[in-house]
Amino acid sequence: MHSLMDTLLVVVVLTNLWLLGSGRIGASINAAAAQGVVLGVLAVLIEEGRLGVPLVAFAVLSGVMKGVVFPWLLRRAQRVAGVNREIEPLVGYTVSVLAGVAALGIAMRLSARLPLPAPAPSALMVPVALFTLFSGLFLIVSRKKAITQVTGYLVMENGIYTLGMAIAREEPFLVQLGVLLDLFVGVFVMGIAIFHISREFDHIDTDQLSALKDTQS
Amino acid sequence: MKALPVIHFVLGLLLAPFLFGVINRTKAFFAGRRGQPLLQMYYDLWKLVRKGAVYSETTTWVFRAGPVVSLAAVVLALLFVPAGRLPAVAAFGGDILLVAYLLALARFATMSAALDTGSSFEGMGASREAQFSAMAEPALLISLAALGRHVHAWSLSGIINPLGPEAWRGAGPVLALAAGAMAIVFLVENARIPVDDPNTHLELTMIHEVMVLDHGGPDFAAIQYGAALKLWLLGSLLVGIAAPVHTGSAVIDGAAFLGGMCALGVCVGAVESSMARLRLTRVPHLIAGAAALALLAAIMALR
Q1: Residue B188: CB partners within 8 Å, gap ≥ 6?
Q2: I need a surface site. Which of B111, B133, B158, B205 has the fewest CB within 10 A?
Q3: What residue segments make up the domains of chain A, in order of their start?
Q4: pLDDT tens digits for B269-281?
């Protein structure tokens, strides 16, 4: 069981690298979706001994939301806004992947000296959670398009979810449900925002949005 | 039992061209053809050996030394490579570096010979080969180092011989990541699709083939045979890591290893039939992916 958990965590790391290295919006949406599903499976594996209905229900719900609903919303936003499939990063893909590996090294070191309230179910869990957070942040900072920033946001949330699994095992069910609902609303609103931005300005390049000026002066 | 390593070394020398036959047959099967005979490369080598060589007047001894040095380096490197559970002919701590740099020496000889012709095409090929192999080398060394750290041994035999199915249960992530990195290095170093198309004869896209355009006769036979040995060498490392079989009987282990090599040939053929060659500018991207996998394996092994 332990080795299966480690394998899944490595798969999470690989999806992060995939996200950092992929040049297509479709591919990065797929990677984020795969990550969400893997984390859902992981949530069930961790609570091996005391599986309850709410826990399984929540894992299934979060897997379905992250694996099916969010990708669908994002793809719809991409299609409706007519976004070009190319990602246009500020930092090149190869450099992004190598930066990701460096971030994993930092996460490993950091988690080794991080005092935890309770030992994590797997020694890899906290480093992977931190690494997922880092790569989500990196994706938000280094990609130009609004839609890829949403995927970065999703990845960051996945990192927080993993960290939650690692250190706060008895997280109240309601809190988790609330987080998932917030996420849903976030993606939904961002999808609408992307659509409106693209209708207004013919593109969703956030660089150019920062150059906007107030028209009345 | 003393003779065992020598037997599989000789088997490697004999069977390496056969692997090309397996790959070509698989590709023919996917294309709906019957394909060339499995032993076609032996016929080709025999044909080339009987021919005479033609040397351009502008070339020097560097050009003539190229194929000889590279073949000798690859044969020497093969001495250190184990076949699954069977140990290599020679082994000492740190021979992973020696093997990596013998392969680099072979490449250096080929590239110098290509530059020595003064042909701009061959210079282009040499430049690409230098770029891609310089990027693939860290991936190979780091993945071997990760495995070495995992089993606490620094020779190829020491790393690969103890591996068995139980190793995959215990440290699946490290082995899988290292095997993934090795698989990409295998395709890059042997100039297979998606890095280089061995069938193409359009100079602008070639890497390996373009460097050896001016060699003929026995020299070309040495180059082809050296390429086959290199395919066998890196392939047996990959099979040793990815499909370790441990039954206790040397004959069954050896047969499983040969079966693994044939399966690898079929896999390479299937990849070549189902994928297109990557655009040259995207190849570094792929190799960086291999390096990232290798680094990941190293981080896992260090933990």
Answers
A1: B132, B133, B136, B195, B283, B286, B287, B290
A2: B205
A3: 2-112+120-209
A4: 999 999 888 888 8
